[in-house]
Amino acid sequence: MTNRLIAPMLLILAALLTAVPAMSAEVDPERMRNLEKELRCLVCQNQSIADSHADLAADLRKELERLMREGKTDDEIRAWMVERYGDFVLYRPPFKPMTWALWLGPFVLLGLGAIIIYRVTTTSRKSDSEAAAVDPEKLKAALGRGKDA
Amino acid sequence: MNKLIWSLPFLLIVALILLLGRGLELDPREVDSPLINKPAPRFESTTLQTGEPTSLDDILGEVTLLNVWASWCVACRQEHPLINQLARSGVVRIVGLNYKDERVNGLRWLEQHGDPYAWSVVDGDGRIGIDYGVYGVPETFVIDAKGQIRAKRIGPVTPDYISGELIPLIQQLKQENTPSS
Question: Do residues B42 and B113 touch, judged by C-beta distance below 8 A?
Fold first, then answer.
């Protein structure tokens, strides 16, 4: 029974395995779409070249397709874009001295905030414990004097 | 110490205001070209005027202004009188890059507005433009005698830019080119 099932499954598997290389010779639309989405169109700067209707974006999509057909990797294609338009084309800027503030800034601010919160809360806790350290005898005496008056 | 911590939010806000205020003064359309001080990208094409083959080699050997223009480009019309004037002054050789244009339209445009170019390189499909990182016509590249890109102007040139930056740079580059020994 199981043997009968294995044969067609193996056939399907074989078909899939041969189909995959045939597909990668073509341009994988999903890979292209992902690349386009992380590249900025410099004509309308807040759009990626996937979204932009600018002429240049259409030309760049064509160039991307050509580079992918030539078998270039994503990194090579990104480098190709940066060579021409600078880091600004990347929606995910590289980590380098120029962009340290950009990448690390939020964490520095978070750390600063944490330090401030820590200091503020520990000082108020200290004053709380000072309040608790009031001598109960003295307190009673003070309250008692208040009642007498 | 405590005082310092309490004044920190205030200091941060002041710093933020200064940072954002500076941002208002910058023009986000002007992106520094990564091509500055790099060799000008090679190209092979034809000239608009005569259809002869032309390549980057024709530009080398002399300080040259590469002005990217198109007949459909409105801002090009705005800067064109200045380019004409610059060409007449003979300060520098100007070569055009006719970007994504129809030959007929380009030639007619030069007829109407004047032709300041030693020659114009045809870039019908914009591939040369992409290699030069062109994204906002008109653009103007200063290429030195050795073929290095030394400056790039995005958008139309202005009289201030020409007299304040372009001409001093060209003079400096021309001096570099004449061997002093």
Answer: no
